[in-house]
Design the sequence.
């Protein structure tokens, strides 16, 4: 029988041949998942032999990952700001940049009482803000019924189902009222670039990726429509090359205090502006 360490080494090499990024980290997560342990606990059991009953389920997970299926889909969960969210093909796999967006919102301003998350997907932004800002009223909007169902599953899992109102809407079409904060991580990839994306990204729903021409179509509609509802701040996650264009558009629409902020890679990934 192979030991834990032998399986990790052999699968790491297999993943590398199949162009799986962070190959060793991936097999460690998969093996920990099969064994019902935390990843770091494997380091205390490198010499442990693995039975056929344990290796059987692992082989199927390894096969799926080698085809490009995201690790988060296989595990069924993802960590986001210290909380565990359900994650599957119904919505976009959360990225570290979105964690940073929520951190920036919480760090810079904590007095938001009425919050709207547009394009909520799995609900990571809306639910994280609801958890961190217990006095806030939060609405989460998405055009996809499947995404809203996943958001509801996460809300129940986190005990927030009574705190967040879920609304099916194409951007702000079905939205009423005013908000202190409108936040959005909308699709911002140019339609023409979709076929060039990595195989992992292409497992995400197309409507969570495709931002239309130049990746700007949905963002432009939102910043125009948001003026009717906004009495505070707009916070956007955007493409790394879109901040100058969108800043000019925001200025022309009467927004003030427009500011682009970089992500951890130094790319201007976030845009903040005030209106109302």
Sequence:
């Amino acid at each position: 029988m192979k030991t834990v360490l032998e399986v990790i080494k052999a699968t790491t090499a297999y993943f590398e041949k199949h162009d799986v990024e962070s190959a060793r980290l991936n097999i460690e997560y998969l093996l920990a998942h099969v064994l019902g342990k935390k990843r770091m606990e494997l380091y205390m059991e490198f010499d442990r032999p693995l039975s056929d009953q344990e290796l059987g389920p692992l082989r199927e997970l390894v096969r799926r990952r080698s085809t490009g299926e995201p690790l988060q889909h296989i595990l069924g969960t993802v960590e986001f700001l210290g909380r565990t969210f359900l994650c599957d093909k119904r919505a976009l796999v959360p990225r570290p940049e979105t964690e940073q967006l929520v951190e920036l919102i919480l760090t810079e301003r904590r007095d938001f009482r009425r919050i709207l998350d547009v394009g909520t997907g799995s609900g990571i932004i809306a639910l994280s803000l609801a958890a961190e800002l217990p006095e806030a009223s939060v609405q989460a909007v998405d055009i996809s019924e499947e995404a809203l169902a996943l958001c509801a599953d996460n809300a129940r899992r986190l005990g927030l189902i009574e705190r967040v109102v879920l609304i099916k809407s194409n951007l702000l079409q079905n939205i009423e009222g005013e908000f202190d904060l409108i936040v959005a991580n909308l699709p911002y990839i140019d339609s023409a670039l979709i076929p060039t994306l990595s195989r992992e990204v292409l497992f995400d729903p197309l409507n969570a990726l495709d931002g239309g021409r130049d990746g700007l179509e949905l963002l432009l509609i939102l910043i125009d429509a948001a003026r009717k509802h906004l009495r505070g701040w707009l916070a956007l996650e955007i493409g790394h090359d879109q901040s100058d264009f969108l800043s000019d558009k925001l200025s022309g629409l009467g927004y003030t205090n427009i500011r682009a902020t970089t992500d951890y890679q130094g790319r201007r990934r976030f845009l903040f502006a005030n209106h109302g």
User: Anything to note?
Assistant: The longest strand covers residues 230-237. The chain has a mean pLDDT of 96. Strands lie at 77-80, 83-86, 114-118, 137-142, 164-168, 179-184, 230-237, 256-262, 268-275. The radius of gyration is 21 Å.
